[in-house]
Amino acid sequence: MIQETLFLKNTETFAESLARCGVKYHFAYPITPATDVMKRMAVILPRYGGQMMQMESELAVSSALAGAACTGKLVATSSSGPGLTLMHEAIGFMCAAYLPCIVVDSMRVGPGDGDILGAQSDYFVVTRGGAHGDYRTVVLAPSSGQEIADLVPHGIRLAYRYRIPVVFVIDGVSAQTTESTTLPAYNDYSAEFDTSGWAFTGTKDHAKRALITGSYSHQDGYEMNERLRAKYEVIRDKEQMWEQDGVEDAELVVAAFGIHGRMCRDLVSRMRADGKKVGFIRPITLWPFPDRAFEALGSCVQNILVVEMNLGQMVDDVRLAVNGRIPVHFLGKTGGDLPMYTLADMIAEADRLLGE
Amino acid sequence: MENLSAKYGKTLNLDKLTSYCPGCGHGVVTRLVAEAIEELGIMERTIAIVGIGCGGFSHHYMDIDAIEATHGRAPSFALGYKLAMPENIVFTYAGDGDTCAIGLGDLLHAANKGMPITTIMVNNTVFGMTGGQMSPTTLVGQVTATTAKGRDTALQGYPLLVPEMMRSMEGVKFLARESVATPKAIRKAKRSIRKAFECQVRGLGYSFVEVVVPCPTGLKMRVRDSYARCANEMTDYFKPQVFRDETEQVDVA
Amino acid sequence: MLHKCTISGSGGQGSALMAKMICLGAIKEGLKVVMTQTYGIEQRGGDSTAYVIVSDQPIGSPIVENDADIAVALSSSTYANCFEGVVPGGSLFTNSSMVEAPRDARGFRQVLLPVSDMAVELGTVRCANMVMLGAVLAGTGLLRLEVAEEVVRESLGAKKPQLVELNVNALRAGFAAMEKEGN
Ligand SMILES: Cc1ncc(C[n+]2csc(CCOP(=O)(O)OP(=O)(O)O)c2C)c(N)n1
Ligand code: SF4
């Protein structure tokens, strides 16, 4: 496949980008609005010598994903809230097992079975973890089709460099948005990594290996957790990503990820045109959270406004990052005919805070 | 050790003392599985995906790669593995609780998909590892840690007959129930386990063997009594038989 | 360059296809596009509205929020909403075959064209959307006519070659009618 610009739904952009960047096996169970990912994977993966396998529950999906990941090959899955909930058993397992994989979550309104409308309500479950034990997954939050295509290679490299599940989250509105996106030419990014030191490919390749995440000695369990702790520290230190603009002299900083983060670009250029000192920070990694972007804010910043398509999730991390130094305000919404704020809503709230 | 290896081959690794209780049926089944792998010459490309429970230790006694799956999900792990590495031989090994309580959905769908993987279900009619609680295969009236007055069918239904549930599935190419109650039964079990692996080696489809075994600890019985129970009450209900054997038919691989 | 478009119509009128054609043409011109469709329950009675943003820069907000500079109402049931969502200085293209009592536009231009009737004359009412697309191109310079024709050929050519000519003619008829209006 060559580099080309296509007009695709962002769910399809995920499928195309993953396949073009080396994913060979995709496991999934239908759920709106994530189903388009598996549908397109079913069509395109055979062209790359791979396959999509439909399973009969998300528990089975994530277990098959884990089984396939044991071979060292690049594997992925896609789902939405209720499905992601079920997948956590294996996600926690893969963290303990040092297995790389890619998970795509098209977020919808919850809790419960919820609504197929888009939301950003899985922030907690992906950054805090929905499974037991001390574990982390890398979480990437692209805000447009182009950013999906641009971040997938990076996500794959992170998954293999750290041998960790990497979760992409996108709100369901963006997931169903159709955009022009320049897709990369085929390149298997996982091939940059040598998996022969750990993959479970049979004793023809190495002395017996056993993947054990339980029934170990107390000391082994302690050491495993210390190794995980050290790994997470390195990721925290090296892998924070965000976009920012206009924060140097800003009186108000708006913080948002995904679609609201993308809208911040317009918000800042419009308000700046009116002479208002507004900047924005758009976290791209939700874990590790870009604390550094907030720590670096100068004393000119009098207020931070966090905008989310939920009832207040990322706002907790912003508060932790500023640690009481700057007042943090929240604008959040979930559900409704338009399950998010318009630019006009965001500007009105920003104006109100500037006026205070 | 030399002697043992001469007798059992390279797959079985008895350097470690097994962690099974004395008289546990897992010991026998683990050996039969190792022998089948050895005889088919597939040790270097065979991967054990074991469940959670006493059977989860089985791979420690075999010199093959192993993955300890999450509870009940070994069949789904195996499907994913086999899709990504079809040239390897993948089998799951777990108790009745793992396989047909928490894992029944994963199991039946894996069987129904018919991909060439192999499942060994070791049925001792209790949750052994957690201390002898009721499992779906606990016999009617059987006293366990959680059925003090015996399994009550009004509340808990009847013991689950797992291979019988797979009889209508076209993708299941070898289907059997065996036991380890007597030396003769063990010889039959050995044949079926070997055929189950052969079924996969030849790419025929899914293969399943349930092996009925004693768990003296979970049943709070002396070893000898637990074998007698295995030969009588247990196999009266869980009747050993080969339900389907397509390894005898034409080779498709 | 930045255009925000609202393209609306009722079931079968092909407003979504019209929006898609604009997007495909814009991509051919090396522009960026975003298309969103009616959100959630708002969609009623088979009405459908597609929102398209075309720009030569990466697109920020993907949402058209009552600030369209190009609006199209193919049916009377979508007309009122469309009318409300035009930005001052923008253009509203109204299908006067369907909208019997158009309102007076203040602060923006309204073009009244009987595209359904014109489509019937061309052979089938189904190509009203393409007549309208031709008119929009002539009236706004959103895309060149040749580019739109190329998109029609590429998207219909393979599957329904017999429809290519009809649709190209519809595009041209709409384009010519708009030019005659003296835009
Ligand atoms: C999700 C989950 N639930 C419960 C347990 C606790 N647990 C460990 S082993 C086991 C049952 C094992 O019974 P069985 O599969 O019959 O195997 P046996 O020990 O008898 O060989 C249970 C319930 C667990 N590890 N994980
Ligand atoms: S508890 Fe039962 S199944 Fe477990 S090792 Fe002991 S005898 Fe075997």
Low-confidence regions of chain B: none
What is the name of the CATH architecture of chain C? 3-Layer(aba) Sandwich
How many β-strands of chain B, per DSSP? 9
Would you state the CATH class of chain B? Alpha Beta
H-E order of chain C: EHEEEHEEHHHH
Strand content of chain C: 15-25%
State the separation between the terminal residues of chain B, measured CA to CA: 37 Å
Bound molecules: thiamine diphosphate, iron/sulfur cluster
Beta content of chain B: 15-25%
Count of folded domains of chain C: 1
Strand order of the largest sheet of chain C: 2-3-1-4-5-6
Q: Sheet with the most strands of chain C?
A: 6 strands, mixed
Query: What is the mean predicted local confidence, pLDDT of chain B?
Result: 94
Q: Based on helices, strands and strand pairing, what is the structural class of chain B?
A: alpha/beta
- The average pLDDT of chain C is 93
Rg measurement of chain B, Å: 17 Å
Helix percent of chain B reads: 25-40%
Secondary-structure element series of chain B? HHEEHEHHEEEHHEHEHHE
Q: CATH homologous superfamily name of chain B? A: Thiamin diphosphate (ThDP)-binding fold, Pyr/PP domains
CA radius of gyration of chain C is 15 Å
Named CATH architecture of chain B: 3-Layer(aba) Sandwich
Textual characterization of the structure:
The complex is a heterotrimer of chains A (356), B (253) and C (183). Chain A folds into two domains: 4-238, Rossmann fold (3-Layer(aba) Sandwich); 243-354, Rossmann fold, CATH 3.40.50. Chain A contains twelve helices and 16 strands. Chain A has helices at 10-20, 35-44, 58-69, 81-97, 123-128, 145-161, 172-175, 218-238, 258-273, 291-295, 314-322, 343-355; strands at 4-9, 25-28, 51-54, 75-79, 101-109, 115-118, 138-140, 165-171, 178-183, 210-211, 242-245, 252-255, 278-283, 285-287, 303-308, 328-332. In chain A, the strands form three sheets. In chain A, strands 2, 3, 4, 5, 6, 7, 8 and 14 form an eight-stranded mixed beta sheet that branches. A five-stranded mixed beta sheet of chain A has the order 11-13-12-15-16, with helices on both faces. In chain A, α1 (10-20) crosses α6 (145-161). The longest helix of chain A is centred in the middle third of the chain and has 21 residues, at 218-238. The model of chain A has no long low-confidence stretch (mean pLDDT 97). Chain B has a single domain (4-248), classed as 3-Layer(aba) Sandwich (Rossmann fold). Chain B has helices spanning 2-8, 25-40, 74-84, 96-102, 104-113, 153-156, 162-165, 183-201, 216-219, 223-237; strands at 46-50, 65-68, 89-95, 118-123, 126-127, 133-134, 172-179, 206-212, 241-245. Chain B is globular. The model of chain B has no long low-confidence stretch (mean pLDDT 94). Chain C has one domain: Pyruvate-ferredoxin oxidoreductase, PFOR, domain III (Pyruvate-ferredoxin Oxidoreductase, domain 3, 3-Layer(aba) Sandwich), CATH 3.40.920.10. Chain C has a six-stranded mixed beta sheet with strand order 2-3-1-4-5-6, sandwiched between helices. In chain C, α3 packs across α4. The chains are: A alpha/beta (356), B alpha/beta (253), C alpha/beta (183). The A-B interface holds A 24-25, 27, 51, 53, 55-57, 59-61, 63-71, 73, 75, 89-90, 93, 200-204, 208-215 and B 43-47, 49, 52, 56-57, 59-60, 63-70, 73, 76-85, 88, 105-106, 109. β10 (210-211) of chain A pairs parallel with β2 of chain B, so a sheet runs across the interface. The complex binds thiamine diphosphate and iron/sulfur cluster. Residues 51-55, 71, 94-98, 122, 124, 126-130, 135, 215 of chain B line the site of thiamine diphosphate.
